[in-house]
Automatic annotation (TrEMBL):
Protein name per Swiss-Prot or TrEMBL: Circularly permuted ATP-grasp type 2 domain-containing protein
Organism whose genome encodes this protein: Magnetospirillum moscoviense
Domain of life of the organism encoding this protein: Bacteria
InterPro entries: ATP-dep_Glu-Cys_Ligase-2 (IPR051680), CP_ATPgrasp_2 (IPR025841), UCP005522 (IPR016450)
Domain Circularly permuted ATP-grasp type residues, every copy: 89-464
Amino acid sequence: MEQSQGTPQGGGLMARYRRGEFFCELTSPRAAGQEALQALFSRLDGLDEETLRRRIAAAEEELYDLGITFTVYSDKDAIDRILPFDVLPRVITAPEWSVLEAGIIQRVTAINLFLDDLYHDQRIVADKVVPADLVLGNANYHAFMKGLKVPCGAYSHVCGIDLIRDQEGLFRVLEDNARTPSGVSYVVENRNLMLQCFPDLMEGFGVRSVDNYGLMLRQALEEIAPDTGSEPKVVLLSPGIFNSAYFEHVFLAREMGVPLVEGRDLVVEDDRVFMLTTAGRSPVDCIYRRIDDAFLDPKVFRPDSMLGVPGLMEAYRKGAVSIANAPGTGVADDKAVYAYMPRIVKYYLGEDAILPNVETFICREAEGLKYTLDNLDQLVVKPVGESGGYGMILGPKATRAELDEFRAKLKADPANYISQPMIGLSVCPTLTAKGVEPRHVDLRPFAVTGAKTRVLAGGLTRVAMKEGSLVVNSSQGGGSKDTWVLE
């Protein structure tokens, strides 16, 4: 496909593509699966760019008509947007996926064991593997959950593990999203779009399906529901239409075949949860909640919450209803706790992590803070509680004034930050206004846990649409691609 310096051998659409110094998800050499990648390169090279752009425009119009949008609250000019979709797929070979799947299951298993330990024996704290104040003093640690036995020992029932690939082609974990990860609707809808608008591109490649996600999720939720002697009644609890991920809530409720409800649609009587319907009150056994802990129950968390259900936590504590993800799961979602994940995996499973972390410096520790301050212009620094690319600084791309301002923030509140080296994220061929060019990508596979953990074959590939940008978040201008896992 290319010579060592990135010169492709195509003569059509891909003729000017150069991956540069980065690992390319399509053209860099692999130990296995090279033939399929070569075949896709050739097929892409044979596409007509003008025709392709017309088909993409029609596909994007379809996305908007279907309401497949997300909300950008900080943008006064454009509230609802479609997530920019790039038709050139990201491919994961079968051998690569087998490693990723095993690594994700290992990590999610360790996360659930970690959470179960924190809310019961706290062995990992007593053994000083993880600092006590880091977890027990964490804003997401809820004393309410202490001693509560959750079904199947599962706290994080839906987990999104953010992965990047470095310049050597090694997959690394960038973040753990253990609370209410979003984006799986784009995984499924991107595939639907490819099958509908670009079937000729997919033909013959043996791509694993993603259309079973709704059934996979519903099965896990039914597995954790209390045994009432009848089929479990599952609902999806949404904060409502003004939430940025509301489209996904509608999508998932439809995919699972369950009611979409808001807090006002549920009531607790005698520690039992009921849904209010036109035919009367219907019992609820399991709630897939897409609202934050703080708003779940005004009797336990924020008393001013209008989104939750009064009495829900007492019903939950008595085992009358299951909640996914469990309250208090956010302790494992913390970016400072992330730094300890290799040790957490080793502690509970006696194994080395299959998927390594990105090297991380913890600014709450004197050594980590000193290193970060001394090398601020070379590091990526992130607040531990933020997501979506907010509040972070990319040292190598920051101005002197920005670095000085951030240095002051670090000194004022070091416990709020971690830092990591700037990783040269892998790239993927992407159709831009100037033709096919490399753009940086990451990957968010989704793991669903009930009686066991299952991983959807693929995940959300986010792409930094701006040339040279390493920020892939949709809220920061990123887009997405279909992710092909080959059989």
